[in-house]
Design a protein that fits this description.
The complex is a heterotrimer of chains A (323), B (300) and C (433). Chain A has helices at residues 3-13, 19-62, 79-86, 89-120, 127-135, 142-152, 158-165, 180-190, 193-203, 208-216, 221-249, 253-259, 273-283, 287-315. With 323 residues, chain A is an all-alpha fold. In chain A, helix 4 runs antiparallel to helix 11, helix 8 crosses helix 12 (253-259) and helix 9 (193-203) packs across helix 11 (221-249). Chain C has 433 residues and is α/β, with parallel strands linked by helices. Chain C is built from 21 helices and 11 strands. Chain C has helices at 2-27, 53-69, 82-94, 108-113, 121-126, 131-135, 164-169, 181-191, 206-215, 232-246, 254-260, 266-271, 284-289, 324-334, 337-345, 354-358, 360-363, 375-380, 393-403, 405-408, 414-428; strands at residues 43-50, 73-80, 101-104, 143-144, 147-148, 151-157, 159-163, 198-201, 275-280, 295-299, 310-317. The relative contact order of chain C is 0.16. Classes of the chains: A mainly alpha (323), B mainly alpha (300), C alpha/beta (433). Chains A and B meet through helix 1, helix 2, helix 4, helix 5 and helix 6 of A and helix 1, helix 3, helix 6, helix 7 and helix 8 of B. Chain C: Pfam families: SBP_bac_1.
């Protein structure tokens, strides 16, 4: 809490009086504010306790058992975790692949989203149409999207035709162990529309006066973008970053529908954490083992998210301090 | 300012001088937008092309990118089934409307509290909010099913609707970020004018948060409308199933190696997507063209 | 701070309570949601099946016939999209509300080994089902530790589809059940035009190459339940299949496949007219009836000794069913000729009932628009080998899929690949004692 934030309510109260009463008043106001906070936040707290907390605790317990989801679970202590970390090579492959996927798709998605939002923020004719076209891919059901993506990525498909025009011999994408992850990243970039929606909505909220003033000062549009738009957007960029990390680490359906089957690249090239976990839980009936995977994944995501929050203090520009 | 913007678009030449250069569209802007839209649309053109293909083409998987044949009758064929498509549509509408209402009602207040009000334990609680999103839903699915079964909610819409009234991590975080961008002087001024915390939220924050809430509405709608896993797990009666699950029936086959009727699958996908496109196309003015330019303009 | 800690403990308490409740529930997840009914053979049943809209029609028609005959039984049909069937059923059972009758296939022993299905030997006898007589060699296909857990319902052998135009262009006689591997390979070579036309497709599919393994006297899992995936017979059979792709070039490579289109398997490539011979199930017929190519069907070739994979499914009764007697009565009816005929009349699949397979209803279905020798299915059913439906079926398939990826690309020989797979299988498969 900054000094400013602490001082503000005191100033707002502005009741003249001796120091002790002012302090007592401050304290009671603080208590009232805290009460209001818990009152306002109570729907989420209640929902969490009722719908999420029990199942989460249950999965922690299950991760310490050999539960097959049908018969009585046997307690096995940390055995699942030990096996995952020391014996199961797929776990480490999946983790490596997932980090690779996230490390590229998240920043790339953010940059492209920001760039598109900036373009759409201009006074473009038919901007409704452009916005719709860019958001549209996120609406297409996955069965359809996966099917057409397989077609686009065929060795002699349209994407490679396009690359061929530029004189680049295209890879075999989904069949090639080194190109299957970039293929998945491409699919994630195709759905960049939802990040763009938020960035654009936030851009619309930036006071125009800032740009007018910068214009008078002779700042170029590029400069205005970096010194006005981006700083003003940092809370939303930060939101997209954190949600991007959380989402990317849990990538599932795309991997599942694009990389399965005998005619695809070897699995170790594309296996990711949640598809790995899903197989263990619902194809192999190792629910306890799958629960252990999910909690290790939780720790990994938590780690990266905390790093994001740590660095946020340096670059996220809040109108007011929210910490 | 909203008015000015609109005018500027209608008569760009007259207002050119008053629009900051950063907002002026150059031919380069148009070129880029067109190329990007075209590239993003290639898969969609394919969807349409497959939807219009004959059964022979589907059977041999011999599709072309640009439609070569136009079997419009495919669009009526998906209704020519024993599946109650109209009922599916109605169910989808009911579930989605409640889900959207629930999220839009709850998320704003909770997010505002996390952004503005001070309380002991708030930051820790906020980390819990974020952390709830880090557990794959696949792993809590069975415990959650048991929970809803104990509540007697299986084979009803309740598991698909009720949790939305308690918001979720994504939306709380989103609103918090939007609120934190607004100058704090606004609420302070309102407090001096005698508004309580709820008053500030209701009178000051809510109008300014509308774009964020509309975005939440659109995301919730998109998600709920397209979700088939939740309905699959919680619903048993065919008469209660939503359209997204109906589309799954079209693409499902009785043998593992059997190819689904791709033309009908794509028709189904188009029919499922179309209402969302219309909602987004019409709804975007509330998302982008409301005057919410923070601070000065918004409050008065 | 104090508030915080108090909250945490209260929450922790609540959570532990909830968790304990959930585990207790799952441990004794027997309180089925099934409606009450007498055990006299009547009652309300829930039946889960997988598939799409055509499957729904076929199953519902059969149920309608059943209800006409036994008005005291009512069945709620739950059609679940195939890819999500196992997950939904698993969740239902884990949540203590499993179906009464469930469709099962290769995964049957996942459930039977975990005590989720009722053994049917006595029930079936009581209901007057003679499995051997009704279904022939596949009567006891779905068994585990000498007990039967599902009654066959649909069952069709893998058969050979061949392109008549290509065969006559190459001056070849139609394929027969008597072809040896040498004859088969010679025909494929004659039918291949490099880069344009291939003799065969689909060798990578387990259903095809496992057939070669059993033709060669090999087994994937031996009679004691141990994996024997790297025996000489298996290695030889797999190598033969792999050579079709990488040595003789008579089967398209992965890259060539991918260029045929998205998700193109042998069926679609055959329909495109790029493949002379395709081995697959009954389902290809309906698509081919609409195609322009001239095709015919024949039984799978024999190699050393006849063996062929069968596709199908059975009906099982869940352990938690409150109405096992009504359920077996329903299954008896559904697997008897009257109801089984519907399976072929609707064009859904091959009925498992042998009597129906020999009847005119099957040999000349009303929807058949060209003369097709449907007797091929009946002929093949005698050659069907008993595939090892071990509880770890899915895991075993995954081990093969992953372990053979490099082999099919021609980067490894069969022995190296199978040695690695065998090692993996030894950790996965626990012999059923």
């Amino acid at each position: 809490m900054t000094n400013l934030a602490e001082a503000a309510p005191a100033r707002a109260g502005a009741a003249p009086g001796s120091a002790p009463t002012r302090l007592a008043g401050l304290r009671s106001r603080r208590r009232k504010e805290a009460l209001w906070f818990y009152l306002f936040a109570s729907p989420w707290i209640v929902g969490f306790l009722v719908f999420l907390f029990g199942p989460m605790v249950a999965s922690i317990y299950l991760s310490l058992t050999d539960w097959d989801s049908f018969t009585t679970p046997n307690f096995v202590g940390l055995d699942n975790y030990r096996q995952l970390l020391t014996e199961d090579p797929v776990f480490w492959t999946a983790l490596k692949n997932t980090i690779y996927y996230s490390a590229i798709s998240v920043p790339l998605g953010l940059l492209i989203g920001l760039w598109l939002a900036n373009l759409l923020n201009k006074q473009v004719r038919a901007r409704k149409l452009f916005r719709t076209l860019i958001y549209l891919p996120t609406l297409v059901p996955l069965v359809a999207a996966a099917m057409v993506f397989k077609m686009v990525l065929m060795p002699s498909g349209p994407l490679n035709d396009l690359l061929g025009l530029a004189g680049i011999p295209g890879p075999t994408w989904l069949l090639d162990p080194t190109w299957v992850k970039p293929s998945l990243i491409l699919l994630s970039i195709w759905g960049v529309g939802s990040a763009t929606v938020l960035l654009l909505a936030a851009m619309k909220g930036i006071p125009k006066e800032l740009y007018e003033a910068a214009e008078v000062d002779g700042a170029s549009p590029m400069r205005q973008f970096w010194s006005i738009t981006v700083p003003q957007l940092t809370p939303i960029i930060f939101f997209n970053l954190v949600m991007g990390i959380i989402g990317a680490f849990q990538v599932f359906s795309q991997v599942y529908v694009l990389t399965r089957g005998a005619t695809q690249a070897p699995e170790e090239a594309s296996v990711m954490m949640v598809p790995f976990l899903f197989d263990q839980a619902f194809a192999f009936y190792h629910m306890g083992y799958a629960s252990a995977i999910s909690w290790l994944l939780f720790l990994v995501i938590l780690g990266f998210t905390l790093i994001a929050f740590r660095t946020a203090r340096k670059w996220v520009f809040y109108e007011t301090e929210v910490k | 300012m909203a008015v000015l913007t609109d005018v500027a678009v209608d008569r760009p030449t007259a207002k050119e001088t008053r629009t900051p250069r950063a907002f002026r569209a150059t031919p380069f802007t148009y070129a880029t937008l067109m190329i990007v839209s075209a590239v993003l649309s290639v898969p969609l053109v394919l969807v349409v092309s497959i939807a219009l293909s004959s059964d022979q083409t589907v059977n041999a998987n011999a599709f072309s990118i640009i439609p070569r044949e136009f079997h419009w009758e495919n669009f009526t064929r998906v209704f020519d089934t024993s599946l109650p498509m109209g009922r599916f549509l109605l169910n989808s509408v009911i579930i989605s409307l409640f889900a959207v209402a629930g999220q839009m009602l709850s998320s704003g207040l909770i997010g505002y509290a996390f952004a503005r009000l001070r309380a002991p334990g708030k930051n820790a609680l906020f980390m819990v909010v974020i952390a709830t999103m880090m557990i794959p839903t696949q792993i809590t699915m069975i415990p959650q099913f048991i929970l809803f079964k104990e509540l007697g909610w299986i084979n009803t819409f309740l598991p698909l609707i009720i949790p939305n009234f308690f918001s979720n991590g994504f939306n709380v975080f989103l609103v918090r970020q939007f609120v934190s961008r607004l100058p704090k002087e606004i609420d302070e001024a309102a407090m001096i004018d005698g508004l309580g915390f709820f008053g500030v939220y209701r009178r000051i924050m809510l109008p300014m948060l509308m774009p964020a809430l509309i975005a939440i509405g659109i995301f919730t709608l998109t998600y709920t409308w397209g979700d088939f896993m939740g309905p699959l797990i919680y619903l048993n009666d065919e008469s209660k199933m939503p359209l997204a699950l109906g589309i799954q029936y079209i693409s499902s086959t009785s043998a593992a190696m059997q190819a689904p009727p791709w033309n009908l699958v794509m028709v189904g996908s188009i029919l499922l997507t179309l209402p969302m496109i219309i909602v987004y196309y019409l709804g975007q003015r509330y998302l982008y063209e409301m005057d919410i330019s923070g601070g000065s303009a918004g409050v008065k | 701070m104090t508030i915080d800690r108090a909250r945490v403990t209260r929450r922790g308490f609540l959570g532990l309570g909830a968790a304990a409740g959930i585990i207790t529930l799952t441990a004794c997840g027997s309180d089925s949601d099934g409606d009450s009914g007498s055990s006299s053979g009547g009652g309300k049943l829930v039946m889960t099946v997988w598939g799409g809209e055509p499957d729904k029609t076929a199953y519902q028609k059969r149920i309608d016939l059943l209800v006409k005959k036994y008005p005291d039984i009512s069945i709620t049909l739950q059609l679940i999209p195939s890819e999500t069937y196992e997950q939904k059923v698993q969740t239902m059972i884990a949540g203590g509300s499993g179906p009464d009758i469930m469709q099962v296939a290769e995964n049957v022993n996942v459930y039977s080994s975990k005590n989720q299905l009722s053994p049917l030997d006595d029930l079936a006898k009581g209901a007057g089902i003679d499995l051997e007589q009704r279904f022939g060699p596949i009567g006891s296909l779905y068994s585990y530790k000498d007990k039967v857990y599902a009654v066959p319902d649909r069952s069709g052998a893998m058969i050979t589809y061949y392109n008549k135009t290509m065969f006559s262009a190459a001056n070849l006689e139609a394929p027969t059940a008597e072809w040896t591997w040498e004859q088969t390979l010679a025909a494929f070579k004659a039918l291949t035009i490099p880069g344009k036309q291939w003799g065969y497709a689909g060798a990578e599919w387990w259903a095809a190459w496992w057939g070669f393994v059993y033709q060669n006297g090999g087994k994937i899992i031996d009679d004691s339940g141990k994996p024997v995936a790297n025996s000489d017979q298996v290695v030889e059979a797999l190598q033969w299949a792999g050579d079709l792709v990488n040595k003789h070039g008579v089967v398209p490579t992965k890259k060539q496949y991918a260029d045929f289109g998205a998700d193109v398997n042998g069926d679609a490539a055959f329909a495109q007219g790029k493949i002379a011979v395709s081995t697959t199930g009954f389902w290809a017929i309906s698509g081919l009836l609409k195609s322009n190519i001239d095709w015919g069907i024949a039984p799978f070739w024999r190699g050393k000794q006849q063996a062929v994979t069968a596709f199908g499914s059975g009906l099982a009764i869940s352990r938690t069913s409150k109405n096992p007697n009504a359920a077996i009565k329903a299954i008896e009816f559904l697997s008897a000729p009257d109801a089984q005929k519907v399976i072929i009349e609707t064009g859904q699949d091959v009925p498992a009932n042998i009597e129906v397979q020999k009847s005119d209803a099957f040999l000349k279905p009303t929807w058949m628009t060209k003369p097709v020798d449907m007797d091929v299915f009946g002929e093949s059913s005698a050659f069907v080998y008993r595939a090892p439906f071990i509880p770890e079926w899915n895991e075993m398939q995954k081990a093969f899929e992953n372990g053979l990826a490099n082999f099919w690309l021609g980067k490894e020989d069969a022995r190296t690949a199978l040695n690695a797979v065998q090692k993996r299988l030894e950790t996965i498969v626990k012999p059923a004692g």
